[in-house]
Amino acid sequence: MSELALLGGQPVRSEPYPRWPVFDDAEIQSITKTVLSGRWGGSPHPGPNTVEFATKFSELIGGGIAVPMINGTITMEVALRAAGIGWGDKVIVPAYTFQATAAAPMAAGAIPVIVDISPDSYCIDPIAVERAITSKTKAIIVVHIAAQMADMDAVMDIAKAHNLIVIEDAAHAHGACWRGMGSGTIGDFGSFSLHSAKIITTGEGGVLLCKDEEMAELAASIIDCGRAKDPEKVNFTMGVNYRWSELHAALGLVALERFPEQMAQRSQMADYLEECLSEIPGIRLLKRDPRLTRRSLYRYIFNIDTEHFGCNNDTFSFAMVAEGIPFDTGYPPMHRYHLFQPQLSKLAVPAAFPEFFDFDAMSFPVTETASEKESIWMSESIFRSGRQGIEDLVRGIQKLERNRDKLPQIAEDYAVQVETINQNTKMLKRGVKKA
Ligand SMILES: Cc1ncc(COP(=O)(O)O)c(C=O)c1O
Fold first, then answer.
1. pLDDT, position 90
2. Would you list the domain boundaries of the chain?
3. Atom of ligand 1 nearest to the CA of 204
4. If you measure from the C-alpha of residue 373 to the centroid of ligand 1, how many angstroms do you get, rounded to a whole number?
5. Does the CB atom of residue 206 touch ligand 1 within 6 A?
């Protein structure tokens, strides 16, 4: 019998990794207090919990005016609307990200122009950004993916030279810092998700950090059905109800208190993981840019040498899941998401501008290699599992490495299937033994 769990051996770990979110009586008390106050919703906007959360959130991140709202997708749509970006304007987005980064411009009526990522960071490639700029380009959305940050020095220089708005999609990067500056505070806007899996979570929710007071006022008006936020000014805005509730904010206030300690713990364990991984043949870590002065560990990506292991990331992560280590392979390249296929999505923007949605003609080699061959993703919970959790993971990879001669056959024998309704969500892959 082989050592590998997939072939009947003993898995390296039987205990699950710690669950998320973490909570105790503090959340229950905060929610109870809000329930008893009778002030549950977001109207009149903003409510007291939301105001307190907004102040504490921007203090924690290190700047900006925080406008909480219902999620971390609407945040980007609202930022674009506040900046006057809409129908037919172009917004540059990276090919390696969750669909929200490109869905938000479409919801605002703009065309997402997809560009490739840098092989060092897996964040947007500034050279590709510069090449994609035309007279119609109005904004760049960068994504600080996994434990990385985009090269904000280069992106801000390009934006300045071409008079473009910069939105930082910091859904993965609460608390990360670029040369000491908080992620989400460098561009014109920072967009944060507070969705259940995120490292500051309230179940659902989002925060838009705005650099400029007028933009923050417009954003607050847009999410509150267009109501003016300054009685002295009549700022007509097209708005709808994207308000956040006081019950969500009650959870958020506790989450903010928990965050610094959780962040330090994850960061310490990520350093330990890297120390261990750097000694395993066939494993390649992403580069660590010295300007990334503080990392945030929502997700973590490393790469495998497909020649060395004789398989791609699907088979590798599938074999690791059998060992009790919850790896996955992250996002598909953006142009494969069904949402952006005009014939499937039937959305107004792809229908009106089909020339920008000819995905068969598009190619993003760095993203495709990362997504479909080399990159392995893991979640924040691994970094809360102590040294034992990290060591189990490392033992699992070492086991695969020792048994790598078996992996090509496993790839042959198992069809690794995408187990989602469509490709608009992160791919969860499961191996199914071929008949
Ligand atoms: C990179 C990125 N951007 C945006 C979002 C959207 O956030 P939400 O689910 O709060 O709308 C997510 C959520 O998974 C994300 O990972």
1. 98
2. 25-256, 259-433
3. 10
4. 23
5. yes
Mutate-to-test residue for ligand 1 from 20, 91, 106, 193, highest number of ligand atoms within 8 A of CB: 193
With the most atoms of ligand 1 within 8 angstroms of its CB, the residue from 117, 174, 195 to mutate is 195
Within 8 A by CB and 6+ apart from 352, the residues are: 88
In one letter, which amino acid is 318? Answer: F
DSSP tag of 295: -
Phi, then psi, of 261 in degrees rounded to 5: -70, -40
For ligand 1, the distance from its centroid to the CA atom of residue 424, given in whole angstroms, is 12
314-330 per-position pLDDT tens digit: 899 989 999 999 999 89
Confirm or reject: Cβ of 73 under 6 Å from ligand 1. yes
Task: Decide whether any atom of ligand 1 lies within 6 Å of the 169 Cβ.
Answer: yes
- The angle, 0 to 180 degrees and rounded to 10, between the axes of the packed helices 25-37 and 246-277 is 160
Are the C-beta atoms of residues 374 and 117 closer than 8 Å to each other?
Answer: no
- Quick check: 116 and 367 in contact, CB under 8 A? yes
Rounded Cα–Cα distance for residues 223 and 229 (Å)? 11
| Rg, the chain, Cα only | 22
Which phi and psi angles does 189 have, rounded to 5°?
Answer: -140, 150
Q: Which CATH architecture has domain 25-256?
A: 3-Layer(aba) Sandwich (3.40)
Verify whether ligand 1 is closer than 6 Å to residue 193 (CB atom): yes
Q: Which CATH architecture has domain 259-433?
A: Alpha-Beta Complex (3.90)
Question: Rounded distance, CA 95 to CA 365, Å?
Answer: 10
Summarised one tens digit per residue, pLDDT across range 52-80 is 999 999 999 999 999 999 999 999 999 99
Phi, psi of 22 (to 5 degrees): -85, 135
Averaged confidence pLDDT in the chain: 93
Check if the beta carbon of residue 48 is closer than 8 Å to that of residue 39: yes
CB-ligand 1 contact for 174 (6 Å cutoff): no
